[in-house]
Amino acid sequence: MSPMKPSGRNVFLLVIAALYTALAAYDIALLMETLRAFVDLLGKVVPVLFLVFVMMFVVDLVVEPGTVKNRLGKGSGSMGWGVAVLGGVLSAGPIYVWYPLLEDLRKKGVRDSFIVAFLYARAVKIPMAPMMIYYFGWTFTAVL
Predict the structure, then answer these.
(1) Three-class secondary structure of residue 102 per DSSP
(2) Phi and psi (nearest 5°) for 121?
(3) Rounded Cα–Cα distance for residues 69 and 92 (Å)
(4) What is the DSSP string of 19-84?
(5) How confident is the model over 100-142, as pLDDT tens digits?
(6) 3-state secondary structure of 91
(7) pTM over 0.70
(8) Residue 106, C-beta contacts closer than 8 angstroms, at least 6 positions apart
(9) 141 CB contacts (<8 Å, ≥6 apart)?
(10) What is the DSSP string of 103-131?
C-alpha cells in the first residue's frame, strides 16, 4: 500500500498551524490578539455564508437546470446579458460570498461570459450613479 499524498488544503492547514505555534512560542499575547481578530472575522463571515448557502438551496429547489440554460446559456441573447448586468448592479455585499452561488449557476449551464459580466457590473452601484454621471457623463456611465 502506498502512503497517502497530502492534499493542498491539508498542507495549507499544517502551515497555518505551524505559524500559529511559532507565534505562540514568540509572543502569546500577540497570538491571543490574532485569534480574537480571527473569531471576530469569522463572526461576520459565517452569517453571510449561511445566507448564500440558503440562497443556493432555494435556487436548487426552484430553478431547473433547463431553465437556467434557456435564460442564461448559449443562445440566450440580450436577455441573458441584461439579467447578468442588472444582477451585478443590484447585488450587494462582499464579492467572495457570491462565488459559491455563481459556481452553482455555472454548473447549471450559465455562460462564463455572463458570470464575468455579473462580476464586472458589481462596480456600478445605484447610490454612486449620480456621482459617476457628474464626473464622467451620461454616455460613459451608460456604456459602463
Answers:
(1) helix
(2) -70, -15
(3) 24
(4) HHHHHHHH-HHHHHHHHHHHHHHHHHHHHHHHHHHHHHHHHHHH--HHHHHHHHSTT-HHHHHHHH
(5) 888 888 888 888 888 999 898 888 777 778 888 888 888 888 8
(6) coil
(7) no
(8) 112, 115
(9) 124, 129, 132, 133
(10) HHHHHTT--HHHHHHHHHHTT--GGGHHH
